[in-house]
Amino acid sequence: MHYETFDHESDIGIRGFGGTIAEAFENVAVALYSVMVNVHRVRPKERRIVKVSAPDRELLLVEWLNALLSQSDIERMVFSKFEVKINDTSLIGTAWGEMLDRERHQPHVEVKGATYHMLSVQERDNVYVAQCVVDV
Amino acid sequence: MDPNSFNKINDYLWEIPQKGEMRVPGRIFASEKLIREMDEKVREQVTNVAMLPGIQIASMAMPDAHWGYGFPIGGVAAFDPDEDGIISMGGVGFDISCGVRTMKTGLTREVVMPRLQRLTDQFYTGVPAGVGSEGLIKLSPTQLDEMLEGGAAWAVKKGYGTKDDLEYIEEHGRVDGAEPDFVSETAKKRQYREMGTLGSGNHYLEVQVVADIYDEQAALAMGLKKNDVVISVHCGSRGLGHQIGTDYLKSLAYTLQKYKITIKDRELACAPINSTEGQKYFGAMSAGINCALANRQIITHLVREIFTGVFPEGHIKMLYDISHNTCKVETHVVHGKKKMLFVHRKGATRSFGPGQIDLPQEYRHIGQPVLIGGTMGTSSYILVGTEEGMNLAFGSACHGAGRAMSRTQAKKKWHGRDVVRELEEQGVMVRGHSYSGIAEEAPESYKDVTEVVDASHHANLARKVARVKPMACVKG
Fold this sequence. Notes:
heterodimer, A: alpha+beta, B: tRNA-splicing ligase RtcB, eight-stranded mixed β-sheet, seven-stranded mixed β-sheet, globular
């Protein structure tokens, strides 16, 4: 599994794994959408680009996730496939998805925002892990 | 937490003595049982908040306190701008001014029961709810700014509700100090199509019946009798509020170094009230409050139209509207002196006592109604603020019970359809936009709100007036 969610009291944690930080960021984004909808049923039909920057890679993770949430809310879209390029303190992300279709995507719950709680971007045995708790 | 690790002031008040970097003591209002059940993080977070500049009297936690982002949920803290007091995004949260509005119907359970299914179905289709739902009203950028400035008063001017409704909302449905210019374009873009939507998760619209009256005099003043049917809505400031939270968590977290504020947890994300950043957050957050109030006002209009369509003999009248994620400017007495303070209530409800000018005329002798939501299958409560509560906790009380198990565990344990069926067997009609959402909201996944309400009552924060039971529930 390249991504997972984990329990955290009233809210939910999301986690992405990868051989690089960028890959971990791509996979934690899938985890984010898995909280909101049945992500396996989201077709990567349309492409959106997101650009963010932050003083460190952990804050960059929060920026990335929150930028995706804003984009989703504004356009009523959900995403399932991502490509991330990180350059030190800035990130360009491409997200593929489609307009939200309740019947098809079986929405669960809205995510209000990515938080700083349990926020970490670390390497363990050559695997990068990016995680945080999201407020639902 | 171990009760013996606190200074027990009385059976319902536990103190963390002021020491180290704390500027004031910590005060947790709870029964001994609730203290034992509270997670250790509550102590840590109450202590962290006690270290913030300008904090007055104590860093407080309500009987439903649990771990939160920076502040505990159920956290209350007031700051004096004249003492370098701060304003904190962590003390407000992402869902700015999430709250509960309760409306009276003028009808009894016997009259409503035969048409309850039709009513519930119409609420389900008529009030937009759930992930990605769109409001029936779309705003232009100019109208959105007007809404952010005008709150529920703006909504009434636009024809959503009556002027009388505004009397029964905190600060008459509109807070001063809202600055639409400090709300980002992204936040506004998220809201153009979201006005009058319920949201999802633990948000709801419920048809309820008054099951018990505990305080006859207060119930009389509120116009409540046993078997009366009321309707409650629980929702907040939607995408705009969430975005303001996100935007300012970032900008305030980044400015901590500038003001040399040392905090143990960057989720406390704060700035001096008298600073550019602090003023900007206050202006944006106040706009968020107005957005939540306008949102609930529009939903009230929808509820009224739908309800009177099914019950032409009924009449929707406001009981009250409370908010529980706010920072408000209020006057309180501190060590004998009247002070203007910035009172943060994070997952805590304003609970003003008798005599307060902000209250509508007919409640002034009893105090402010405090609406505490339960779960789909259990009771909700109506309380009233007390004078003691004004002195003890800046007129604040709990907001509801926290979760007893995580959403993931709840989803594993229950299927949404089974939860619906069980509730229907108990006589509660449920309509939801997401079965997995319903599973996560299963009644047993929450702690018992009765304990929390009883503790608030015994702690003198608020006094029990009535218990209401759900008849029907619409979830997002």
